[in-house]
Structures are given as C-alpha cells and as structure tokens.
Amino acid sequence: MANSYNMKEFSSTAVITENGVFPSTISINTTNTKYKVNENEKDYDPFQSRELEHPNSDVRSFANLLKSSLGSGILAMPAAFKNAGTLVGIFGTIILGYICTHCVYLLVKTSQDVCRVSKVPSLGYAETVEAVFATGPRPLQKFSKAMRIFIDWAMALTILGACAVYVILLVDSVQQIVDHFSKDNSLNTTLYCLIFLVPILIFTQIKNLKYIAPFSGFANILLVLTFLICIYYICYDFPSFDSRPMAVPIGRLPLFIGTVIFAMEGIGVVLPVENTMAKPQHFLGCPGVLNITMSIVVLLYMIMGILGYLKYGDSAEGSITLNLPTEEM
C-alpha cells in the first residue's frame, strides 16, 4: 500500500542520522498534490536490510516490552482508582490502555514507513521524527534537525523523571521495612538513594537488549510474585464491590489519568525493541507482540487497581506495598 501525503512539490536530500549508524540519503520526487512511492522504494524492505549482531526472538522482545510497560507502576494503580472510582476506573483503564497502544502502533508504523521512503533499515525515536520532517512539506523540512534535538532532550527528561519516581518508590518500600525492624537506625531518604545508586549504575552499563532480556524476565517473575502477595493480603477480609463509590468528583480525574499513563507507558523502549527483533513483522498486527503485551498489561493493571481500591479506599498509598502489614516479613 503506497503512502500518500498532501504536500507541495519538492525534491529533498537529507542525512537522517549524524552518528553514522544508519546513514542514508533521502531523495524524494513528488507530484503536485500527492506523494507517490516509486517502484524502487516499493521494493525496498527495511526488515530484510537489517543486519543485527544480537537479534531478539519474539519471546525476548515480549519480555523486554512487558517489563517496560509492566513496572512498579502497577503498585500505584489503587491510588489511581481512588481518583476515579470503581466503574470509572475500570473503563478508564481500558480506554487509556487502548489509547497508549494505538499511539505506540502509530509510532512504529510511521517509523517503518519512513524507513522504506528513506531506504534505511531502522530508525530510533528521534531519527524517526527527523526523517518525517525531512520528507514532509517543504516549510517544515528546515525544522528536522531541531526536532530531533528536541525529541532527544524530551525523551531524556521524561525517562529521568520516571526513573526518579521508581527510585523513590523503591526507597520508601525498603525504608518502611528497615525502620520497622530497626527503629534506631540513622539512615534517611538521601542515604537510601545513594545506596541504591551503585547497583542502578551497574545495570545501566548493560546497553544491549539481548543481555537485558534475562534480567527483564527475572524482574517480571518478581513482579508477578509481588502481585500475588498483594492480592493475597488484599483478598483477606475483602469488602463488597458497592463499598466504594463508582465515580468521584471530576476534578480528581486528571490525577487518575496521569497515574495510569505514567504506570503504563514505556514509549522509550518501543522502537529499540522493534529495531532489534529477528522478525520485526511480528511486532504489529494481530495477535502481534505489541497487542499481546498491552492486553496483559491492561488486564493486570485493572485487576490490581480495582481490588486495591476496594480494600484500602482513600487510604491507598502511592505504592500498594506501603499498605501491607509491615510486621509480617
């Protein structure tokens, strides 16, 4: 299926990447109103042109994508539901899950399409944005490099903020336990953060997704165990469904939306996962790695959110583990 874009006639030549990993020259000829891919561009298959030193199987890609979307944010879902209510929370989680999945689909599909146009095997997040601007309407082409720089900084700041939140959740959970069993310790939050800085820096030195996949798989197992432990405590002396309001004042809804999107999205990992797949054509489509992963994520988030909210109500903490009985090891 040929792509068509409404744009003015132009012919451009642009280098998509500066780092030389996927150097390419784009040369596009257009008609007066519609862009038409010529026969050579139709024949170019970026999937066949990828030369991967460490290709990932569908299972490894599934593990990495699941870990990026199914993180400790699931433990914040009861706190999200207290800002939505039972019924609004359930349908809201499904709708937001669909929106997140659709946005990821658009990102990956656009990246694949622009790879065919620019004749490069794969593109990263910022490179995709640069290529889209470079091959877009003439007035926007001059912004291609600036948009790439903007996306790089935006992604870095977004992921930095998310990682900071995860470290705080980690520190709060560990500090709660240590303070309970050792009330006279002199450790404060800053010292805990410095202690965890060392193993975090070690893990960040693993830059290949193939080698991260086993850690992601192990982390998924631990996360499932945490999920089951939380469900065990939640279901003990479980209240009835109508014990909590089905909806709360609409002014609290942005907190619900922000928490769910923060917990669910893993946009920074999507293109690296797709770019390193041995069979990238299995990423999209039905069932596809993306749809299977996001279906599991939405289901688990919805279960944790509704059960945790029914159990703890407005007293649900930012991480449901903080509501568990600390005296039980």
TrEMBL record:
Pfam families cross-referenced by the UniProt entry: Aa_trans (PF01490)
Entry GO terms, CC: vacuolar membrane
Membrane spanning stretches: 87-108, 149-169, 189-206, 213-234, 254-271, 283-310
Keyword Repeat: no
Residue ranges of every copy of the Amino acid transporter transmembrane domain listed in the record: 57-328
Main location: membrane
InterPro entries: AA_transpt_TM
Superkingdom assignment: Eukaryota
Membrane topology note: Multi-pass membrane protein
Keywords associated with the record: Membrane, Transmembrane, Transmembrane helix
Localization of this protein: Membrane
Example of a GO MF term: L-amino acid transmembrane transporter activity
UniProt keyword Membrane present: yes
PANTHER family according to UniProt: AMINO ACID TRANSPORTER (PTHR22950), GH04538P (PTHR22950:SF494)
Protein's name in the database: Amino acid transporter transmembrane domain-containing protein
Species of provenance: Euphydryas editha (Edith's checkerspot)
Classification of source organism: Eukaryota, Metazoa, Ecdysozoa, Arthropoda, Hexapoda
